[in-house]
Structure formats: structure tokens, C-alpha cells
Automatic annotation (TrEMBL):
SUPFAM superfamilies: ClpP/crotonase (SSF52096). CDD domains: crotonase-like. Coiled coil: none annotated. GO terms for biological process: fatty acid beta-oxidation. Its EC number is 4.2.1.150. Signal peptide: none annotated. It comes from Candidatus Avichristensenella intestinipullorum. This is short-chain-enoyl-CoA hydratase.
Length: 258
């Protein structure tokens, strides 16, 4: 594995996304590693709970803009599907998954945290859905999981304004369960995972599954619909210009609406 570090602490697995040079942006290879790793953990009875975190100053700064910038709508649709599969592997893992959000959780990073069962944040965490500023919609489930987590009005404010919120605002809207000092976050997340791991394994898995029964019923279909809308944006000049500007570290030209 190139982009994930896997550490076991007794019954708790700590998965660290380790691509800090790109702020842990989710390139296709990283998405594939997530899918494979969570797929393997599903079959590992020794793992009772999982903590997912990021190396460096980001949890995940989003989907990989450098990879996406030249996508055709068809390629964007395939990328959204790859993200959906990876995130479904996280969400449907039989064991509970705690996101320890250590820094930026933007775009696909906020969406990945939403695919986890419980979110804890460092005071340095920043959450946001900046996609419309890049000429696209959220494409890894954000339009579906964010409103389910914090309500449509608050989700739409984040998605349509593209403005990030800090950890305390995330706590206030219920996006995270608790905020810790940066140096305490991982230990607190592991401690919660250990508490979960001491409970009856069959019951813990069944309880997670039960809570997700309703939420998952229409989710895969809705996320496929989101993927189609995401893909349409890749036929616009605005998407090409905004992503080129990010990669070239310049201000994008004003949006044209096409
Ligand atoms: N994709 C690709 N590369 C990224 C990236 C991303 N999402 N985010 C950061 N990087 C890269 C930068 O290009 C830079 O690379 P170089 O050193 O090679 O130039 C490196 O990571 C460090 O980033 P910055 O220099 O920008 O760090 P900063 O501290 O100045 O800024 C930041 C941090 C505000 C998070 C800024 O990096 C940023 O705005 N990143 C993009 C955030 C974003 O828009 N995410 C949404 C992506 S779209 C999406 O996720 C779609 C979806 O739903 C599927």
C-alpha cells in the first residue's frame, strides 16, 4: 500500500491516510486502497473498531483536483463511482468507524468523514464543500450524507456558499461529536474505539447495521444520481478554468455559466 498506514492497537485498527504532500487528496489509487483495506478489515474478526485519520495538516483536502481537471463527463462519472464504492466500503464495514478529523476535511474529505459512523475533531479541523467554487458539485456523497447529518438548510449553506466552518461550528451543527486539542485527538478516538470494542461484537455490528438500515435504503441510488450531476459539470468551461487556476495557483477568470 502506497497511501495508507495500518496500525493495530489490540482490537482497534488505526488507518492513516498518508499522502501529506498533496494534503491527502483522494487520487484514484488512494480510493482503491481504501476500498481494498476496508474490504479486508470486514473479514478480520480481530478488528472490533476502526479509527480513520490523516497524516500531516489535513484529514483529506478533497478529491484530487490535478487528476480531475482534464476529465470528460464519462471519466468524472467513473471517478464518482470509484469514490462511491470506496466510501460504501467504509460505511458498510461491519465494525464501527470513527473519523479523527485532524485538519482540513474539504470536499471529498468532508464526504469521507460523513461516511464514517462517528466524527471527532481537532481544534484545527476545517470542514467544507468548496466544489461549486471549482465549477462542480460534491461528487462523493456530500449532497446526500451532509443533509442527512445536519439538515438540508445547513447543508445547503455549506454546499452553495462553499465556505468552510471551523471545528466549533461543526460541533454546533452536529457534524462532529466532540472537539479536542490537536495532540489529544487520536488518543481520544482510540479510547472511544476501545470502549466500543469491549462491548459484545455481534451486538455492536447488529446495532450499526440497524442504525444504517433506513439511511442506506435509497442512498446508493441517490449517490449515483449525484454522480451524474457531478459528471455534467465536467462539460463546462467554468470547471476547466477553475481547476486549471487551482493547479496553476492563480485566481480563476469570472465564471461564465457554461
Ligand atoms: N487536490 C490535489 N492537490 C491538492 C489538493 C486537492 N484537493 N489540495 C491540496 N493539494 C496540493 C496542492 O496543490 C499543493 O501541492 P504542491 O505543493 O505540489 O503545490 C499541496 O497539496 C499543498 O497545498 P497548498 O499549498 O494549497 O496548502 P495551503 O496550506 O496553502 O492550503 C488548502 C490548504 C486551503 C486546503 C488548499 O490546499 C486547498 O484549497 N485545497 C483544495 C481544497 C478543495 O477545493 N477541495 C475540494 C476538491 S473537489 C472534490 O472534493 C470533489 C468531490 O466531491 C468528489
Amino acid at each position: 500500500m502506497e497511501y495508507l498506514l495500518l496500525e493495530t492497537r489490540g482490537p482497534v485498527a488505526v488507518v492513516t491516510i498518508n499522502r501529506p504532500q498533496a494534503l491527502n487528496a483522494l487520487c484514484s489509487a488512494l480510493l482503491e486502497e481504501l476500498r481494498e483495506t476496508f474490504g479486508a478489515m470486514a473479514r478480520d474478526e480481530a478488528v472490533r473498531a476502526v479509527v480513520l485519520t490523516g497524516a500531516g495538516k489535513a484529514f483529506v483536502a478533497g478529491a484530487d483536483i490535478a487528476e480531475m481537471r482534464g476529465f470528460t463527463p464519462e471519466e468524472a462519472n467513473a471517478y464518482a463511482a470509484r469514490g462511491a464504492q470506496a466510501f460504501a466500503a467504509v460505511e458498510t464495514l461491519p465494525q464501527p468507524v470513527i473519523a479523527a478529523v485532524n485538519g482540513y476535511a474539504l470536499g471529498g474529505g468532508c464526504e469521507l468523514a460523513l461516511a464514517c459512523d462517528i466524527r471527532l475533531a481537532s481544534e484545527k479541523a476545517r470542514f467544507g464543500q468548496p466544489e461549486v467554487g471549482l465549477g462542480i458539485t460534491p461528487g462523493f456523497g456530500g449532497t446526500q450524507r451532509l443533509p442527512r447529518a445536519i439538515g438540508a438548510g445547513r447543508a445547503l449553506e455549506m454546499i452553495l456558499s462553499a465556505r468552510p466552518i471551523d471545528a466549533h461550528q461543526a460541533l454546533a451543527v452536529g457534524l462532529v461529536n466532540a472537539v479536542y486539542a490537536p495532540e489529544a485527538l487520536l488518543e481520544e478516538a482510540v479510547r472511544l474505539a476501545e470502549t466500543i470494542a469491549r462491548n459484545a461484537p455481534v451486538a455492536v455490528r447488529a446495532a450499526k447495521r440497524a442504525v444504517h438500515l433506513h439511511a442506506r435504503r435509497a442512498l446508493d441510488e441517490d449517490i449515483a444520481g449525484e454522480g451524474r450531476l457531478f459528471a455534467q459539470c465536467f462539460a463546462t468551461e467554468d470547471q476547466k478554468e477553475a481547476m486549471a487556476a487551482f493547479v496553476e495557483k492563480r485566481t480563476p477568470a469570472p465564471f461564465q455559466g457554461r
